C-alpha cells in the first residue's frame, strides 16, 4: 500500500524530521580520497527523513519513492536501501526500534542521493537523540556508513557538500584538512545538470578498484597521497593503468587550483571542465558512451562554456556551465538531440 505521509504509514506523528540536499561537483572528481581539492555545490533537490521510536526490537523503514517497506532487527544491516539508514543508526548507538519515512527528489546518479539520505538521517537522529555532532563530524559519520555498511570506499566530498554546501556558491573543500570556503560561480554563468538516464551502482562498479589503483600509485611514488606529487612527470614512470589513473588525479587537482586563480572567467572555467571530462573519459575510464554523447552535445552548444560528467561515473548525471539565463533553452536544445527516453533536466 502506498503511503503519502509518516502518519499514514505508522499511525502517529514523527518525532524528528530533517532534510539534506544533493550535490553536483563542478571540478575535482576522484581526488577526495587522495587529499585533493574539490568544488561542489548543493542542488535544490533534497532527501527528507522522518523518524520516530516504535517501541519494538526492529526498524521499520519506508521509502515513498520506491513504495517499499523494509524491516530490519535492531543491530542488523538489512538490504536494499536499508544500510544507508541502519548504518547511521548503529554508528549512532541506537538500541531501540525506529520508524523511518523517506522521501527524496534527488535524482540518483552523480548527484549524491546516497549522501543526502545519510546526512538527512543523521540530522534527524541528532535531533531525536540529542547527538553531539557538528556538521563536519556528521559528514564524516556518513562517509563511515558508506565504507562499513554500503561497501563503497568513497572520499569525503559528497557528505561534506551535502552537510555544508548551499546552492548560491561553490564550496571549495581541502579534503585533507577539511578546511573550506565559499567560492562564487564565474560571473555571467549558471549551472545546468542533466541526468543521462544511464543508471549505475557504485558498489557493483569499478569505483573501489579505481581507489585501490591510485593508492598503489601513491605507494610506488613514495608519497602519502597523490596530492603530494610535486613533479607531475613522476607519474609517467608508473606502470600502465596506474600511470593513467594517477595522471587523472594529479591533473584534476591542478585543474581545481587553476580555477581559483585570479581572473578566471566562465570561458576559462568551462575549458577546465572540458579537460576534466576528457581525463575522466580517458585516463580514469569511468565515463559511459551515452554520458560522453550528452557531454559532447552540451560542449557544442553556443551558450555552454563547458561540460563534464559529475559524480563517480559509470553513468549518472552531467553538469554544464551555461550563459546566465540560458540553462533551460540549452537543455531543451540538447535533449531534443539526446532522445533517450527518461532523460530529465535538474535546473
Automatic annotation (TrEMBL):
Entries under InterPro entries matching the protein: Galactokinase (IPR000705), GalKase_N (IPR019539), GHMP_kinase_C_dom (IPR013750), GHMP_kinase_C_sf (IPR036554), GHMP_kinase_N_dom (IPR006204), GHMP_knse_ATP-bd_CS (IPR006203), Mevalonate/galactokinase (IPR006206), Ribosomal_Su5_D2-typ_SF (IPR020568)
Signal sequence interval, chain numbering: none
Source taxon at top rank: Bacteria
Gene Ontology molecular function, alphabetical: ATP binding; galactokinase activity; metal ion binding
BP GO annotations: galactose metabolic process
Domain annotation GHMP kinase C-terminal: ranges: 265-338
Protein name listed in UniProt: Galactokinase
Domain Galactokinase N-terminal: residue ranges: 5-50
Family under the similarity heading: Belongs to the GHMP kinase family. GalK subfamily.
Chain ranges of the GHMP kinase N-terminal domain: 93-164
PROSITE patterns recorded: GHMP_KINASES_ATP (PS00627)
Keywords attached to this entry: ATP-binding, Carbohydrate metabolism, Galactose metabolism, Kinase, Magnesium, Metal-binding, Nucleotide-binding, Transferase
Enzyme class per UniProt: transferase
Keyword Metal-binding included in the entry's annotation: yes
E.C. no: 2.7.1.6
GO CC list: cytosol
Pfam families noted in UniProt: GalKase_gal_bdg (PF10509), GHMP_kinases_C (PF08544), GHMP_kinases_N (PF00288)
